[in-house]
Design brief:
The chain has 4 domains: about 1-75, no CATH class; about 85-260, Immunoglobulin-like (Sandwich), CATH 2.60.40.10; about 270-405, Sandwich (Immunoglobulin-like), CATH 2.60.40.680; about 410-494, Immunoglobulin-like, CATH 2.60.40. It is about 10% helix and about 40% strand. It has 5 helices and 34 strands. β8 and β9 (about 115-120) form a beta hairpin. α2 runs antiparallel to α4. It is elongated and about 100 Å long.
Amino acid sequence: MVQYGPYPTTNASVLASYNRGDLQLWLPNLRSSARVWTDVVFTGNTNKADVPVMMSVWDKKFRVDFCMVNLTIICNTCPTGGGQGRIAGITSTESGQGVNDATVFINRNAIEYPKSMLTVDGLYAFDDVAPSVSGADGVQLFANKGGDYDNGVSTLDLVLIQRHILNMAKLDSPYKVIAADVNNDAKINTIDLVELRKVILGTSEEFTNKSWRFPTANQVINAENAFPYNEVINLLVSTNDVDGQDFVAVKIGDVNGSASTDVINAQSESRTASRLDLTAAERSVEAGETFEVAVTAANFNEIFGFQYTMNLNGANFVDVVSGAIEVTESNVGVISSDVITMSYAAREAVSLRADEVLFTIVLKANKAGQLSDMIQLNSNVTAAESYVGSTIKVQNIGLTVGSVDAAAQIELFQNEPNPFKATTNVNFFMPKADNARLTVYDITGRVINVRNINAVQGLNTEAYTREQLGTSGMLYYKLESGDFTASKKMIIIE
């Protein structure tokens, strides 16, 4: 035990008590004693002092030897005269977006460490960090963020990683290469594709790797030599503030940088208003019948891939069979008896005729009914989207059960971007020129904006600004034309 300071009354009384032997604590069972220092001086701006101590050892026959050691005394209540240091930095993506709710840790060889804090807009700062008293008294900084494995990952990432593996289009930054290492073996290969696809399909909830990695920002790495990389900042603390202790936030699996850095203000991935139109022929089925659904598309032009969730009502998934594109059961995730997911990624852009069968889904009906009532595409598990063109843009995907002509119908798309701060676009498709009305209203049903539109055949776009709508929060917008009515939500954020 070390006793420092005027205890119980004054230094003089402590010294007198010590000299009388009153403060010498002897514990025979522990072979331990106490000593009091009344003259320790904490130098500089630290709360530590090194005191030379003679340490003795003896055996049962009282044969004694000794050595001199330095005892470091830490005063947890001593003032430091404002000499504490401040360490600060940011965790941000390669594109400069600050990452919210990452945990930054600071550690050193002291009983009160490690400490941690959550980032706000990517920023962190540790105040009142005692200066280092030696080269061995530095601190270590590192960051972590977990749990959101599916954040930002999609079949588009599969396309890009696959093209990197095949040397068709190499990933052009070390952070994209780090993101592609899904299984954390410092290699980019087909094993990463398999593991990533399982999370995209919803059949697995995590990677072998962490969800996020945080390489230090001050290291020199490149796309050709990204491994190994450093994730720990080692730092000697001074009495001066030390800024710029930064980390690059890398979302594993997300090589196109679409991951949200803030769940509350998450932005949906930017996509075009056009869509890939899948088509299947309408038919009647009987209970217990195993039947095939041949899927075609009138506009399968320069497609790199697609993904979707399919709800099954009255049927169960049996198999998927390749057609003009190669698919296997590994492209399908069976989430439950009435929900499946699908992900297809091509090495190169694929263009097919409208009469070519892309693939065939084999189902077994558990009740009689029409096919159009049994299958429906949505984004409940895996987002419904497709990837098109030389720049591999993200677009929508839909499925129409009926004739090819039935696919040409009025359709209202989700506004882009959503949520938004300043401006957003509402797109809708018209199979022929006609009158249409767009109405925006709040959650109470109060009408905020009405537009009567002479819609053209094809895609129509209406832009809305925050000033025009004059509010924030959740709103609804409704498209009406003839007997057609459809509504969607939009969100205005501060």
